[in-house]
Automatic annotation (TrEMBL), chains A, B:
UniProt keywords, alphabetically: DNA-binding, Transcription, Transcription regulation
Protein name in UniProt: LysR family transcriptional regulator
PROSITE patterns tied to this protein: HTH_LYSR
Protein's organism: Streptomyces rubiginosohelvolus
Annotated Gene3D superfamilies: 3.40.190.290, Winged helix-like DNA-binding domain superfamily/Winged helix DNA-binding domain
Family: Belongs to the LysR transcriptional regulatory family.
Domain HTH lysR-type: 1-58
Keyword check for Transcription: yes
One Pfam family of this chain: LysR_substrate
DNA sequence: TTACTTCCACAACCAAGAGTTGTTTCTGGT
DNA sequence: ACCAGAAACAACTCTTGGTTGTGGAAGTAA
């Protein structure tokens, strides 16, 4: 029992002619004849009375007609329920303060009709996030997934390189530097509490420290960004790294300084993961937006080799 | 969008395994895989999450699952609505007194579960009744249709030969004869009021009268069977012909006599018309019943040559 | 009647689809 | 490292649904 057969029967019943139904459906009269014959054979009853001036439903056809319409309506509802774009796009971000979340927010403000939800998966690492995308728990996820860990069925697009900035208190030796190079950071203590082993951002900071000979300290409990900033503000030697687009609320209150890194500029490569072939219009809209209207990446950037090339 | 595809999806969702669904549906695992893939391609979304321990519905699949079940239920209702046997069989008879109506009545009494309606079409003749059958207005009709007038799509089965009997009043010369041959009726006036030209029974009586040299008088208005019997009872010369199984209520009250015709026995050949391939169980039941348990036809019968042979 | 038109079914053909078996890949458990 | 289970992929066959061309039945007009 095929929906097209039912649609054909309904069309013939409504037009009264096989040829008219064929025109409406864009097929030949003979195809209509075959479809009707197959449907009648399947049901075991004659649905249409053929005359030399057209066709009309037989008594059984009159009984069947409303049922056929009902089936078509229910089928339409079923397709509508899962049509790509019928529900908001679910985008996963590591946390709501980092630059991808800000970019998604900008996208939403400029496209209010594009429905989306920003969620934060409690996944261990990028590979697990990729699985969540694959399973449909979320539709897309901003991660820094190593290129050789991209599972089948997942597409990646490196849409945002977030330049790193040094965050220091007013007593720090670099507090008034207009910018600083990664190599100049060697010897300074960089403290990033709360790094969880096995995550892709742990791997990012490890690769970064190895590339420039930095000492990045991940020890100590993570009491949250406020405690971190309190500590930074009072310390003359501690510093931390943040993304230039990250949204921290109170740096001004502590007189903290953001010092851009240059020559080269280390960037955190935010890669968008999504199901290959996903046709959700908000997904394509978001990708287009970030590709064109996203923040401009400076020249002379550094990123781990293991991320997918742009 | 095929019902089988939906059924496959529902089965996989319920069993959790492609192979289990394949077993349940009686197809191969690969066929299930193809059906699901085609459905997902049609809808544009992924419905099932494949793992190494089976499959479960994705978020979109969970949304789609109840819709799929709904479609299947509505399809089942639609098929049920026109399933052969789901409505009473409509059988047309010339009128409710003649022997086919009586036989159908006996069939119904011995098979109370076989639902049927006995109707009387106001059609002109057998050819029009055949059209009514073809169009589904009725499912079957007892007629005496000439073999060369059977339209395409109509099957015929000669199920009942109704022997004719002479109906006379007590004063008629043949009133006390145990039986009479058609040839002996030559010279007697046989009066059958209400014969309508163009009907197949008019043709029957014409053929009969020509075959045996009878004078069958069709003149005069038809005041109904009661008036006919009144007239017969009072006449010493008038006679009429009735089927042996016909049900006339008051012959005894008028002291009318039924004289069987023999050597040969003229029979009215009641042929059942029905749509070729009609699978209505009551139709097959009725045909079986009449073929086996119907009234026995005497030897040495006469019938018009133009009816279909048994 | 005879032609002509309309409407649908049938026949032959062709490409796409749906089924099959055999094989591969992936994953999780031992 | 190996093995077992699950689903996908590949190659093939055969059915199906589409096409074009044609034919038959019924109404219509000359």
């Amino acid at each position: 029992m095929d929906a097209e057969a039912l649609r054909t029967f309904v069309t013939v019943a409504e037009t009264g002619h096989f040829q008219a139904a064929a025109d409406e459906l864009g097929i030949s009269q003979q195809a209509v004849s075959k479809r009707i014959a197959a449907l009648e054979r399947h049901l075991g009853v004659m649905l249409l009375v053929r005359t030399s001036r057209g066709s009309r439903p037989s008594p059984d056809g009159q009984v069947f007609l409303p049922h056929a319409k009902k089936v078509l309506a229910v089928v339409e509802q079923a397709e509508q329920a899962v049509r790509p774009g019928s529900r908001p796009l679910r985008v996963d971000v590591l946390n709501r303060r980092i630059s991808p979340a800000q970019a998604v927010h900008r996208f939403y403000r400029s496209h209010p009709d594009m429905e989306l939800d920003v969620v934060t998966l409690s996944t261990e690492n990028a590979a697990q996030a990729a699985h969540a995308v694959l399973e449909g728990t979320v539709d897309a996820s901003f991660r820094a997934l190593p290129a050789d860990q991209v599972p089948a069925g997942i597409s990646v697009e490196r849409l945002m390189d977030a330049p790193l900035e040094l965050l220091v208190g007013p007593g720090h030796p670099l507090a008034d530097a207009p910018h600083v190079s990664p190599a100049e950071l060697a010897g300074h203590r960089i403290w990033i509490p709360g790094i969880m082993p096995g995550t892709e951002w742990a791997a990012f900071y490890r690769t970064l420290s190895e590339a420039f000979g930095l000492s990045i300290d991940a020890l100590g409990p993570d009491f949250g960004p406020e405690a971190l900033m309190d500590t930074l503000a009072e310390s003359a030697s501690l510093a931390t790294l943040v993304g230039s687009g990250d949204r921290y609320l109170w740096p001004q209150a502590h007189d903290l300084r953001r010092i851009p890194l240059r020559a080269p500029t280390p960037v955190y490569p935010h890669v968008l993961l999504f199901r290959s072939g996903d046709q959700h219009p908000v997904l394509t809209g978001l990708r287009d937006y970030l590709r064109t209207a996203g923040p401009r990446t400076p020249h002379d950037v550094w990123a781990p080799e293991w991320v997918e090339a742009a």
